[in-house]
Amino acid sequence: MYYWNKEAECISPDELRALQSERLVRTVRHAYENVAAYRKKFDDIGLSPADIRGIDDLPKVPFTGKLEFRDTYPFGMFAVPMDQVLRIHASSGTTGKSTVVGYTTDDVGVWAELMARTLGAGGTTKGDIVQNAYGYGLFTGGLGAHYGAEKIGATVVPISGGNSKRQIQIMQDFGSTVLCCTPSYAVLLGETAREMGVDTKSLSLRVAFLGAEPWTEGMRREIEALLSIDALDIYGLTEVIGPGVSYECMEKCGLHVNEDHFIVEIIDPDTGEALPPASKGELVFTSLTKQALPLLRYRTRDITYIYDGPCDCGRNFVRMHRVMGRTDDMLIIRGVNVFPSQIESVLMDIEGMEPHYMIVVDREGAMDNMEVWVEVSPEIVSDEVRDLEMLERRVSDQLRSVLGLSLKVKLVEPKTITRSEGKAKRVVDRREVYGEG
Amino acid sequence: MKVSQLSVFLENKSGRLAEVTRTLANANINIRALSIADTIDYGLLRLIVNDPVAAKAALTDEGYTVAMTEVLAIEVPDSPGGLAGIIDIFSENKLNIEYMYAFVGTSGRNAIVVFRTQNVDEAIAALQQKGVRILTGEELHSL
């Protein structure tokens, strides 16, 4: 078994609980004293930070969600002055505004440690060459994996995403041993290698850390066969810290949550009641060490369950099953979060556009393919194809700039989009990304 | 001078053209000329019919999206160089032809070609100056 930090990862359950309690008390106080949104939530229900004396008091703490980020955009959730914020990252919000997060120097250090554990669990050491094909930028994937690999002392190839043939070429020439990217991109790389006539068994590649989008056991088998490697699932979300929230070990049986830095809960999404292990519900995280952005009971909208019982690897951190669904209509397209409401607001800003649209997502080969179908209205129909093509381009350019994703806009006849009981079916996802459960 | 043309948005699905023509038949509409401009996903069916207003109403009732545009129906000598002579007039007057298509019937010994240009009035003036005959809607429908 591989560990980056065996002492921390194999902490005894009693010690862990004590550590979590102590850190929770500190985090609650920090959040209350420095973030107006938290203070208001506590004051509204007459809760004092002093009422939270340990982990048993956690259920008293109000939930947080994406709404708080939207209402306090961009920096309102930060608990430290900006001169202590070393880094900003962001992900999509439900409307035009993105969800912005910040990190202090210590936060960046913790993040690197958590990603070092993640990569270490698959056997990454300083002798490895890590080809990091996550996108670098506001997206947390690129820099998250980068800092983790550097913390281990591995050699990082910061190639970022795209240009699959060059990725394979570099794998061959540099002898990359570790790959970091989204699972769908790993499939594409495997297929690209095959098209190029490269025998993946001849590559030095040994293991891949795949995340930022839901995938299935079927995809794992496919990727492992295509690239002749072990494929491990990693999980994280921007609001919590980015990748590094939880990670698989070589047992490939659930993702260990870094419980010394985050408390994980599974709740009933309707009632907010905490659910016991093995029950499916919504994932909720509370940060324990974050300074710039303390997070109290953040509702992820991701659906999964926590495994009952320990893992054979020796880690005492609980394991969550891979994400099995969402409580909202968020889509993850090529690693990018997309809300149908974002698409709707773009369409509504274009004159003559019908509010009747549908989002069709499919997987073409390895890559997610998103089409937005829009019904033509009498206002936009023309006798010239050119006018319609220009309109399609205008809409797709606008959507690309808002979503950061290229997609196809397709004009369709009126009444194409199913209307049922007054509520239109807006999303058709044919990918079956969450598998059978 | 101007003739009303209907443009119907159609997805590229089998049977769509049949449905449109059936709808027009049921409304007792006679199609005088048509052309289709298509892309991978959809097409625009352009129609000249005997009663454009009734045809548009019938199609709209059936849920089609229809645009109405003004085009010119021009008599073209049915002899070598006939069309070239007409197009020269457009070219000399710097009038762009967006698209054109031939009419099914003839006017006496002459062919009829439907022209679409952005500057309809300028085109009419230029053509008439050269003695080119432009058919009215009534003339076209009575052929």
Describe this structure in words.
The complex is a heterodimer of chains A (437) and B (143). Chain A is an alpha/beta fold and 437 residues long. Chain A is built from 11 helices and 22 strands. In chain A, helix 2 (13-34) crosses helix 3 (36-44), helix 7 (164-175) packs across helix 8 (183-195) and helix 8 (183-195) packs parallel to helix 9. Chain B has 2 domains: 2-69, VC0802-like; 70-142, VC0802-like. Chain B has 5 helices and 7 strands; from the N terminus they run E-H-E-E-H-E-H-E-E-H-E-H. In chain B, strands 1, 2, 3, 4, 5, 6 and 7 form a 7-stranded antiparallel beta sheet that branches. Chain B is globular, with a radius of gyration of 16 Å. Chain B starts with a strand and ends with a helix.
What series of H and E elements makes up the topology of chain B? EHEEHEHEEHEH
Helix/sheet category of chain B: alpha+beta
Query: Average pLDDT across residues of chain A?
Result: 93
* Secondary structure tally: strands of chain A: 22
CATH class of the largest domain in chain A: Alpha Beta
Low-confidence stretches of chain B: none
The chain pair forming the largest interface, with residue counts per chain, is: A-B, 17 and 22 residues
Strand content of chain A: 15-25%
Please give the alpha-carbon distance between the first and last residues of chain A. Answer: 27 Å
**Total number of helical segments of chain B?**
5
